[in-house]
Design brief:
Blueprint (H helix, E strand, L loop, with lengths): L1 H25 L20 E2 L6 E2 L6 E5 L2 E6 L2 E5 L7 E3 L6 H4 L24 H5 L1 H6 L33 H11 L7 H14 L17 H9 L35 H6 L4 H8 L15 H17 L1
Length: 315
């Protein structure tokens, strides 16, 4: 019985841990659309926090930090994040704050809240005491880490120095475009990387679907051959017609008739190289039946018979 209870307890703990991880991934940093009253005229001076992969701004009158390619501000008991030094800012849930941001010692908060008093300046704030046992159960182990295995600091986006005053990009789309051009760093933290993915999915334009709006002007040789072999339309030029079969049962095809001299007189008179062509066209041979001889040979045959009769009489 005790083993069954022990197994149920272990299963419940595993389910709670999986739920907390899924909550951190699905709900984290909101889209940057919040104004928190920070108005920086210039790119702030950022100084590394010794022993941490974090920067802080000693000259900014706020709890202002930079970690893993993003700016982090703690104000009015809430965390905010932005990709640019002057916002706009996105609200961050308490259980979605990166662990190295939570581990920043108290002494680097330029405007610490009242409940920070009495806490060790070289230790991180007591977030479990402030946010309650529910938060501490979800973020269990956030204050335990090996100080010798600290990740390297992300490079500062120094390109943002040239964008100040009226040149500062207010639109998130423009900020993203400039970041892709000048800042190639990719976040290593899971929560920060999730924020960039979520922001890109929300702001990316939908692909434009193009239909068949225009037909191709040029046609392939295959299409041209098909078009030439297609039957002529009504009123168009007629092609050569097939001749009907002859009465005697033979399928005799007549040669194509050339244009008459009346239609193309000058052209035919000028063609002296083919005098017999027009004559053959005008005097086309008529189809003959079987056993008949050409008419052109009949006078020769008649002349031969008369000559034989005269010779017989002379004899």
């Amino acid at each position: 019985m005790q083993k069954i209870r022990y197994g149920l307890v272990v299963l419940w703990l595993l389910l709670c841990s999986a739920t907390s991880v899924a909550a951190q991934v699905s709900i984290g940093i909101g889209l940057p659309n919040v104004s928190i009253g920070i108005n920086l005229p210039l790119f702030p001076e950022l100084v590394p926090v010794p022993g941490y992969p974090v920067y802080y701004a000693p000259q900014v009158d706020s709890n202002y930090f930079f970690y893993d390619g993003m700016y982090w501000v703690y104000q009015n008991d809430n965390w905010y994040a932005s990709s640019w030094y002057n916002g706009p800012w996105g609200y961050v849930e308490p259980y979605a704050v990166p662990v190295f941001v939570l581990r920043i010692p108290v002494r680097y908060y330029r405007q610490p809240p009242m409940y920070f008093r009495g806490w060790r300046p070289d230790a991180p704030p007591r977030w479990g005491q402030h946010w309650g046992p529910g938060w501490e159960q979800r973020r269990r182990g956030w204050d335990r880490w090996q100080h010798g295995s600290v990740p390297a600091r992300a490079p500062l986006p120094a390109y943002q120095r040239q964008y100040s005053g009226d040149r500062y990009p207010r639109r998130v789309e423009q900020q993203q475009m400039l970041g892709r051009q000048h800042y190639r760093y990719q976040p290593r933290d899971t929560i920060v990387r999730r924020h960039f993915q979520q922001q890109g999915d929300q702001r990316a334009p939908a692909p434009v679907q193009r239909g068949r709006q225009e037909e191709p002007r040029t046609r392939s040789p295959r299409q041209q051959d098909i078009q030439r072999s297609a039957p002529p339309q009504h009123g168009g030029p007629a092609g050569p017609r097939s001749q009907p079969p002859h009465r005697g049962g033979e399928n005799v095809q007549r040669p194509p008739v050339s244009p008459t001299p009346q239609q193309h007189g000058p052209a035919i008179q000028g063609q002296r190289q083919q005098p017999g062509a027009a004559q053959r066209v005008q005097q086309a041979p008529r189809p003959q039946g079987q056993g008949q001889r050409p008419q052109s040979q009949e006078p020769k045959q008649g002349h031969g018979q008369g000559q034989q009769k005269d010779e017989g009489r002379g004899r």
